[in-house]
Amino acid sequence: MPGINPVSASAPDVSALVRQALLDEVWLTPKPGLVDGANSGSHRDMDLPMFLDSIAAIGPWFSTFLALGREHAGRGACEMLRLIRPAGIACEQAMYQATHGVNTHKGGVFSLGLLSTAAGRLQEQGKALTASALCSTVSEICSGIVERELVAARKASSVGERLYQQFGLTGARGEAEKRVSDGAPARIALLAGGELPQTSPA
Known about the structure:
It comes from Cedecea neteri. The chain has helices spanning 14-27, 48-58, 61-71, 80-99, 106-124, 131-141, 145-151, 159-167, 171-177, 185-191. It is mainly alpha-helical. Helix 2 runs antiparallel to helix 4 and helix 3 (61-71) runs antiparallel to helix 4 (80-99). The longest helix has 20 residues, at 80-99. It is globular, with a radius of gyration of 18 Å. The chain starts with 13 loop residues before the first helix and ends in an 11-residue tail after the last helix.
């Protein structure tokens, strides 16, 4: 995209890593109740070929999220959701077109789109792509999202909004907004491929 400076040749190919993560997840077998390499689990409306079609459709969009993160790295983090939302909607539409209306990766588009955006932002700012930095950047980008999109919603128009109104669950939005100091060590450890932190004995 115009105006984006080239990243270091040693920088990781974030969009390729995202696509590989999606493939690794669906091929992981066994996953009781979920679509995997052996069967469709409890799902009657989706199967492995559909997931592969979905990944092929949404995969290219993570390069767009990465580029948007880099292009707008000089803007405030609170502006980023507005700037990447059109790409997120288009990515979801590509998924639905590939799956004939079945939601295979809406959560993945949200979470991995945010992480890709955060990665681009950090790259452009010359910062290391550590798990902690990625989680902190996503938290900054999503600051206030629960208040704006769940608390203020008068009528539930999505499953996430309905679950919040019925049970107070903040779901993916709440997890994305969490600060590192609010209990994200476990999330960071998992992202980094490490072990869960041990709690201190009482």
